[in-house]
Design brief:
Helix content is about 0%, strand content about 60%. With about 100 residues, it is mainly beta.
């Protein structure tokens, strides 16, 4: 089966997503890679644009964002950082000329 025939790939244990979950664009490129445990997102999540450029990188624990989420321009230049602490979000924006 080619990637153009489906848009997600994941493994289930006891009916719940467990391990790497990948979603794909129509062109077959990866749209998102994330890690799950017992049906809850845990660990690194990376999102890409349709050209395959990384546009967002986050860490999650028990389905909640933790630490720093980074967003990037297609040229890999940092666009913004979102810091999460005690369910409070602080956003830092970078060079908007990209």
């Amino acid at each position: 089966m080619s990637l153009s025939q489906f848009h997600e790939r994941f493994h289930k244990v006891n009916g719940k997503i467990d391990g790497l979950r990948e979603s794909f664009y129509e062109n077959g490129k990866v749209e998102n890679k994330s890690y799950w445990k017992d049906g809850i997102q845990n660990g690194k999540s990376k999102t890409y644009n349709h050209n395959g450029d990384l546009i967002r990188e986050s860490d999650l624990e028990n389905g909640e964002y933790i630490g720093v989420t980074k967003e990037f321009y297609p040229n890999n230049k940092l666009r913004l950082e979102i810091y999460v602490n005690d369910n409070k979000y602080v956003v830092y924006s970078f060079d908007i000329s990209s």
